[in-house]
Structure formats: structure tokens, C-alpha cells
Write a structure and sequence with these properties.
The complex is a heterotrimer of chains A (90), B (395) and C (296). With 90 residues, chain A is of the alpha+beta class. Helices cover 11% and strands 24% of the residues of chain A. The longest helix of chain A has 5 residues, at 43-47. The relative contact order of chain A is 0.27. With 395 residues, chain B is α/β, with parallel strands linked by helices. Chain B has two domains: 2-244, Thiamin diphosphate (ThDP)-binding fold, Pyr/PP domains (Rossmann fold, 3-Layer(aba) Sandwich); 252-384, Rossmann fold (3-Layer(aba) Sandwich). Chain B is built from 13 helices and 16 strands. Chain B starts with a strand and ends in an 11-residue tail after the last strand. By secondary structure, chain C is an alpha/beta fold. Chain C has eleven helices and nine strands. In chain C, helix 1 (23-35) crosses helix 7 and helix 3 packs parallel to helix 5. Classes of the chains: A alpha+beta (90), B alpha/beta (395), C alpha/beta (296). Strand 2 (16-17) of chain A pairs parallel with strand 2 (57-58) of chain C.
Chain lengths: 90, 395, 296
């Protein structure tokens, strides 16, 4: 929606968190975590470029709103407990 | 305090009195004594500022933009190739709505290589969204720098300004200048305090990507600001007059135009010479006047229109040329006049390029010519003055 | 278990519009973890100027100044001058630019800022080409790489000029601290950032930034590639502090081909060409070891 010239600042000031961009919609593949197998090494959280992994008691929770499905978490997981599946499947 | 000083020193004193906080500048003839003087002020502690000896003019303006966004009042100075090198970031400064003030010592562009007075460098920046003031005296240079900060920092404007001195004619020629007391300037010009600036801990981006569906609205706001600048310039000058006891003619300084039949419109130091010529011709009974474009941006459309409606002829002397068209000031004056009910005859005189002297004799000849043309119409709308090889003699 | 090896606080939001698997996202994330909240970042035209999103979206939790392409060195000088004149002195000023904006069009301003000993940290995130504009070659593109302006063809094939050694250029400016970092080694990365933060003067960080579309790699391999670069000694991890080189990770010494074979941008290389490249890597590694041992 185009804002009226009276409603915008003098120059583009960006003060809205980027969480307005739902980058999860980009996904073709998505990571699925086997929480039983997870050794809580925190490596997946460490390497996520999109801050789309949250640790809950050391176990990753994927934020599917923003996860782009790059697959780095699955590739780096030493216990191989993250698997990439096609978006829409489980 | 009354001192004898060059235009360049007047710029330096102006920036000092305006309490510029960050100065980023690169040397170029004939601007160098401005930055040397300011470096001296900073080194002795006379001016509490940070001086950044940048490695190019482009970086000078880029550094000013960054410092200004962080809330500091900035100043820089340049000339000719330095100004044109900055062109990209001049656009940035105005788009970012930053009230940076800069002196441009207007000098010819190369090749041919020249260090002398010419307005082509300044005129080439007319699309950048900067306010442009052409000065005719060193006093005006000092005063206009102080006034420019006040105009530009007002909430309705927030645009940058360039104060233009003619190379060598003003920059290196000494004139008596009244240098006001710091206290008086402080009472006139408060500290720079913008609403929007970089603040540590405040997540905020300055200058990001805007889609086609929103860009125009930002430009529209800048247009309104430039429009606002017109009245703001007049108001600030009245305030200045009240505090310091002098003024410089608003956007269009009119000299003996009230009952004139023909008027010469021009800008810069040549206008001062032209006033002497007007006096001489008036003594001979010729009804001539001079209108000096002091603010080229915002362009004084209304002032030109109200002046033109009473005249038979207007001569516009451009100290620059827009190849493929005509002198820029002529083009814009003519555009203003288009909407007048009664339109005077108009002619463009291209003179003084590359520091070519515009003598009183040449100016007299221009006045003679326009008076003739006002009666019978112009054959050529644009004439190059004092070019060797052309049939007409001007000296 | 469950203990992180790097600081937990995040200074970037999700929703950055970087490509899936973007190395530059990791570079910024680790940089800000090391620097904290009292940071101002200046970003020129580059991928990262687009990644925060269209106005008014911003994925950084710290102030961000967008600038013209070549202006990073000048902008950080201006920022620091303004902070100094206002008496604000507990803020880290960061210039965050791509390789193009640093070694090519930005080199002059970088050199000026370094020579003036501007108190700031300049981070070059190196994806080894002009990625934002579509993978054109830069002065930082390695010998042998395909890019759109060094395409592989019968008369003109791939980039035949070697990569500019920006660390050597920075060393020649005699700055107090310079370091190379790789997003595959975040602990080393953040330690170097924290060290840089504690030093006054001009500091430079050269960060390798794998780029899936530009390097023609699988997005899931971005970290692995950043690891292989170190292990194959294409991108050694070292610091230069007060002129002295110190290697922080020797790497396994893998054959270069392990690094090249997972990247589409090197697929056209013949065995002799790979051998020539290997020799280049070996020579540079020996030079680096010599620099370290000779104390220069």
C-alpha cells in the first residue's frame, strides 16, 4: 500500500523489524528434526544463516515462518538427526 | 570586527562562526586557502571541530553525509572538478535531506584546463536538489554561509546548500569584511538538533531501498521543501538584517529596476561591476537596471515574473553554457517569463568563460545591444561575447 | 550438552532477504555477536544493502547507514568524527562492504580511512565477485573462476588474473589489527571480532562469504565450503597484529581439488589448470608460514 507523502518520513528510515518478510514462503525443502536423536550439540543453531532456529533446552525448534530450507542445519548436524523433506510432505 | 580578507577566508570565518563540527575537505585550486584556514582554526582550538583530511572530494561529501546523519553540523568546500567528482554524492546528500553547507569556488571545467572563474561547474549541479547561492562580495559569502545553515536546518527545508564564490575574483581578492562576534552569531544560529539521526542502540536504517510504488512520494516531499526554502530564505534574511544590520537582496537582488525599461540579469561578481555600469548609463539618461540572481535554486520565478511584466527587454548574462541548448540562467528566466501577459524581448549573452574578463565596456555594449533589440527584436537569441574570430567587437 | 560455544544474543532478525545458504548472513550474524549493541554499521551498495529488505524493513538491531558504493571508508571516518565531536566514545563504528566495494571501487576510500587511522572496524565480506548485480568479476575473484564477465568460452575463458591480496594491502598501511575469518569457524571468528573491538585505530576483517548462486554450489554446503577453503589453505585463518602474522588455524592441508569440485564456478578447469592453481595456493601458504616465522 502506497503511503501518502504526508505519512512518510523525510528520507527512508527503516525501523520495522524484517520479520515482516515471511521468507518461509520461499521454501522448496524443509528441515525436520528428530528430537529423540538430538544430542543437543547446538551446531544447527550456530550455523543457521537466518536465525530461524531457536534452542529450547538445547533442542532445536525450526521457525518455519522464516526457514528458507537451505539445508545447512541438516548438512552440519553431526548426529544426522535433521532430514530435508519436500515442502508439503512430512 | 572589520577585517580585510579574501572570499576564501570569508568562507572559513563563516564556517567557524557557524560552529561547523565536522569538516571533511580535499584541496583544489582555488579553494585551498579555505581548508588551510579551517585546519588552522581547528589546530589552534579556535574552532572545536573534527577535521578529516579526506583523500578525494567524493569522500569529502560522503564523510559529511555520514557525520551529518550522526547529528553533527558539517561543512566542506571545493571547486570545479572537485565539485563534479562529488556529483553522485551531492544527489545523495539532498535525497537524504541533510542540511550540509558547502562553498564552491566556481571555476571552469577542463579540458581546456583552467583554474579561473566560470559557472559551468556550479550550473551542472542545478539538478542535485541543493540550494545554490551566487555571491557578489566577500561579505555576502560570510553572511550567506551563516544564513544558509539557518535556512537549511529548519524543519520545513532540511536540504543542503552551496555558496558560490567566483574563482580568484572573490576567492583570492581582499575586500573589507565585517566579521560578527561569535556571541551574536550564536544568538542567531542555534545548535544543530535534527529530529532524525543515528542514535546508538536505536535500530534504524537510513537510506534504504524503496520500491516504485513509494519512491515518488519521497521526491515530492523534497520538492515541497525546496519550495518552502523560497520563503524561508527571505524570512531568515530579515532576521539576519535585524541582528547584524545588513542584507543581500533576497533571491533576486534588484538594482535600479523600478522604472527600468531594460534589465540585465546575471549572477556572481560580474553583477557588482554591472551596478557601476548601470549608474554610468543612468547618468546618461538610459533607463536600465540590474537584477542579480542570488539564489539560483530555488529559482526566483515569482520575482522574475513580476519584474519582467514591466520591462521592454531582458539581457541574461550566463557565465556558463549548456551545450545543445542555451545558457541555463537564460533558459530558466525565459521559462518564468513565458506565463507573463506581457513578455519582454529576451537575449542570452554568453560571457566570461574560463576567467575571461567581463569589463565595464563589455557590459555597456550588452546594455546598448539589449536596448536596441528591445525595440526591434533579436536576430539571434544567444550571442557569445568577446570570442576572437566573431565579427562583433566588444572591447 | 545444550551449551552454546558462541554468544547467544542475536543482533539480526529473521526475514533477511539473502539467498538460502547465504554466507554473508552468517558473517553479519557472527560479527554483531562479537560486537554487541553499541555498534553502528555503514553499508554501501552490495548484497547487504538489499538484504535488510525494502523500506521500512530492517533486519539489524543496530543503527544502519546506507551509503553510495565507493564511500564506506569515507562514511566510517565521518561517523567517527561526529561521535568524537559529540563526546560519544563507547561505540564501535563498522564499515561492512562486499569485495567489489572494497578492493575495486572502494579501495581509495579504504586506503584513506586506514591511512588516517580512523577508529573503526572495516569488514569485507568476500563472496569473490559482484554478486548483488549478478555475479560479475571483481578484483577479488580467484584465478580460474567463472563469472558472467569472465565466462568460459573458446577465446576468453574464466578469470586469468589472480585475486587481490587485500590483507597484504592492509598490512602495508601498518594498521594495528587485521584478520581473516571464515563462517565455518564461528568461535575463531568471534574471538577475532572481540579482539578487534578491544583495539583502537583502524582494524580490518576479511571474511570469506560463500555464495550459492555465484559459486554455483548447493546452498546446504555453504558452511562446508567455508571449511574446505581453510583446510585446502585457499583461505588461511590468520591475524596480523602490529605487523606480525599469526596463523590461528593451520587447516588439514587438503588437496585443492576437494574445494574446487563442489563448486560449479570451477567445473571447467582442466587438470593442468588445477595443478597450476594448487601451486599458487602452496606458494602463498609457504609465504604465509615464512612471514609468521620471521616475525613480520
Amino acid at each position: 500500500m502506497t503511503k501518502s507523502y504526508e505519512e512518510i518520513p523525510l528520507t527512508p528510515i527503516s525501523d520495522t523489524p524484517s520479520t515482516v518478510n515471511i521468507t518461509g514462503l520461499w521454501r522448496v525443502m524443509k528441515p525436520v528434526v528428530d528430537k529423540e536423536k538430538c544430542k543437543k550439540c547446538t551446531i544447527c543453531w550456530k550455523f543457521c544463516p537466518d536465525v530461524a532456529i531457536k534452542l529450547v533446552d538445547g533442542v532445536p525448534e525450526i521457525d518455519y515462518q522464516y526457514c528458507k530450507g537451505c539445508g545447512i542445519c541438516a548438512a552440519e548436524c553431526p548426529s544426522k538427526c535433521i532430514v530435508m523433506v519436500k515442502e508439503g510432505e512430512q | 570586527m572589520r577585517m580585510v580578507m579574501t572570499g576564501n577566508y570569508a568562507s572559513a570565518y563563516g564556517a567557524k562562526l557557524a560552529r561547523a563540527e565536522v569538516i571533511a575537505a580535499y584541496p583544489i585550486t582555488p579553494q585551498t586557502s579555505i581548508v588551510e584556514k579551517l585546519a588552522e582554526f581547528v589546530a589552534t582550538g579556535e574552532l572545536k571541530a573534527k577535521f578529516i583530511p579526506v583523500e578525494s572530494e567524493h569522500s569529502a561529501m560522503a564523510a559529511c553525509i555520514a557525520a551529518q546523519t550522526a547529528g553533527a553540523r558539517t561543512y566542506t568546500a571545493t571547486s570545479s572538478h572537485g565539485l563534479t567528482l562529488m556529483h553522485e554524492v551531492l544527489m545523495w546528500a539532498s535525497g537524504a535531506r541533510l542540511p550540509i553547507v558547502m562553498t564552491n569556488v566556481s571555476r571552469a571545467m577542463a579540458p581546456p584546463w583552467s583554474v579561473w572563474a566560470d559557472h559551468m561547474d556550479s550550473i551542472a549541479q542545478r539538478d542535485t536538489g541543493w540550494l545554490q547561492f551566487f555571491c557578489q562580495s566577500n561579505q555576502e559569502v560570510l553572511d550567506t554561509i551563516i544564513m544558509a545553515y539557518k535556512v537549511c536546518e529548519s524543519a520545513g527545508v532540511m536540504l543542503p546548500a552551496m555558496i558560490i564564490e567566483d574563482a580568484f575574483i572573490l576567492s583570492h581578492t581582499s575586500e573589507p569584511v565585517d566579521v560578527p562576534e561569535q556571541q551574536l552569531v550564536d544568538s542567531f544560529l542555534p545548535a544543530y538538533s535534527p529530529d532524525l539521526k543515528i542514535e546508538v542502540g536505536k535500530a534504524c536504517g537510513f537510506g534504504s531501498l524503496v520500491k516504485p510504488d513509494q519512491y515518488m512520494e519521497f521526491r515530492y516531499k523534497a520538492m515541497l521543501a525546496m519550495k518552502d526554502a523560497h520563503d524561508r530564505i527571505l524570512r531568515v534574511e530579515q532576521e539576519f538584517k535585524h541582528v547584524f544590520g545588513r542584507e543581500h537582496g533576497g533571491l533576486l537582488e534588484r538594482y535600479r529596476c523600478e522604472d527600468a525599461e531594460t534589465v540585465l540579469v546575471t549572477a556572481g561578481s560580474v553583477a557588482a561591476t554591472a551596478k557601476d555600469v548601470v549608474d554610468a548609463l543612468r547618468a546618461n539618461g538610459q533607463r536600465v537596471g540590474l537584477a542579480r540572481i542570488r539564489a539560483f535554486r530555488p529559482f526566483p520565478h515569482d520575482e522574475i515574473r513580476s519584474l519582467a511584466s514591466k520591462l521592454e527587454g531582458i539581457a541574461v548574462l550566463d557565465r556558463s553554457y549548456t551545450f545543445g541548448a542555451a545558457g541555463a540562467m537564460f533558459t530558466e528566466v525565459k521559462a518564468s517569463v513565458y506565463s507573463c501577459q506581457k513578455r519582454p524581448v529576451m537575449k542570452n549573452y554568453i560571457a566570461g568563460l574560463g576567467g575571461r574578463d567581463i569589463t565595464p565596456k563589455i557590459l555597456s555594449r550588452i546594455f546598448e545591444d539589449i536596448q536596441v533589440i528591445a525595440k526591434r527584436g533579436a536576430e539571434d537569441e544567444v550571442e557569445w561575447v568577446d570570442v576572437a574570430g566573431l565579427p562583433r567587437r566588444w572591447r | 550438552m545444550g551449551k552454546t560455544t558462541i554468544p547467544e544474543d542475536e543482533f539480526t532478525y529473521p526475514g533477511s532477504t539473502g539467498c538460502p545458504g547465504c554466507g554473508a548472513n552468517l558473517v553479519m550474524r557472527y560479527l554483531l555477536k562479537g560486537l554487541g549493541e553499541r555498534t553502528i554499521v555503514s553499508i554501501p551498495a552490495c548484497c547487504w544493502a538489499v538484504m535488510p529488505g525494502y523500506w521500512p524493513s530492517n533486519c539489524l538491531k543496530v543503527p544502519l547507514l546506507y551509503t553510495a558504493f565507493e564511500a564506506t571508508g569515507a562514511a566510517i571516518s565521518g561517523l567517527r568524527a561526529a561521535l568524537d565531536v559529540k563526546g560519544v566514545n563507547d561505540v564501535t563504528v563498522v564499515g561492512f562492504a562486499g569485495d567489489g566495494g572494497t578492493v575495486d571501487i572502494g579501495l581509495q576510500a579504504l586506503s584513506g580511512a586506514a591511512e588516517r587511522r580512523t577508529d573503526a572496524i572495516y569488514v569485507m565480506y568476500d563472496n569473490e565477485a559482484y554478486m548483488n548485480t549478478g555475479v560479475q568479476r571483481s578484483g577479488s575473484t580467484p584465478w580460474g573462476a567463472w563469472t558472467t564477465t569472465t565466462p568460459v568460452g573458446s577465446t576468453h575463458g574464466f578469470k586469468h588474473e589472480t585475486k587481490k591480496d587485500i590483507m597484504a594491502i592492509m598490512q602495508a598501511h601498518r594498521i594495528p589489527y587485521a584478520a581473516t575469518v571464515s563462517p565455518a569457524f564461528p568461535e575463531d571468528f568471534i574471538k577475532k571480532v572481540e579482539k578487534a573491538k578491544s583495539i583502537k585505530g583502524f582494524r580490518f576483517i576479511h571474511a570469506l562469504s560463500p555464495c550459492p548462486p555465484g559459486w554455483k554450489t548447493n546452498p546446504s554446503l555453504s558452511v562446508e565450503i567455508a571449511r574446505l577453503a581453510v583446510d585446502a589453505r585457499v583461505f588461511p585463518l590468520y591475524e596480523i597484529e602490529d605487523g606480525k602474522v599469526r596463523i590461528t588455524r593451520k587447516g588439514k592441508g587438503l588437496p585443492l581439488v576437494e574445494y574446487l569440485k563442489v563448486q560449479g564456478r570451477f567445473q571447467h578447469l582442466t587438470e593442468p589448470e588445477i595443478a597450476e592453481m594448487q601451486k599458487g595456493v602452496d606458494d602463498s601458504w609457504i609465504m604465509l608460514l615464512l612471514k609468521e616465522s620471521s616475525g613480520t
